[in-house]
TrEMBL record:
Reaction it catalyzes: leukotriene C4 = leukotriene A4 + glutathione; 15-deoxy-Delta(12,14)-prostaglandin J2 + glutathione = 15-deoxy-Delta(12,14)-prostaglandin J2-S-(R)-glutathione
Main location: mitochondrion
Protein name, per record: Glutathione S-transferase 3, mitochondrial
TM segment ranges: 12-29, 78-103, 123-144
Amino acid sequence: MVALTIPSEYGYVIATGIASSFFVTYLGFKVGGARKAAQIPYPYMYAEKSDAEKDAKKNVFNCTQRAHQNTLEGYPMFLTLLFAGGLGFPCVSAGAGLVFLLGKFFYAQGYSTGEPAKRMRGSFAYLGLLTLLYTSSMTAYNLIK
């Protein structure tokens, strides 16, 4: 049996997790603003393709919504890797989490211009995610060896 001790630096991991919840909320507000500007009523998730091709505001809404959805799709994995990796490598995991969030910020900012190719500005987010995959894998390995 392995005794698990939570290091005091784990507070940085928790703070990164809290920051991520504010970030996801921020993206939701951006979607709300784009929805209002494009006059897309609830409960529709996206504007119709034909409408978005004719109306720049509807296209921006679709892109803003997609950036938010993409972030939400990977959010459970991000949190799992952050909190697991942080048990063994709290400072590295917190830093990697911040890199991921910063990358997703640039991803969302680029995507929400209405030009999807600009989302690639945030592709460095995956460096943070891969680091979290490493720290969580090593934490698991160290616990079971």
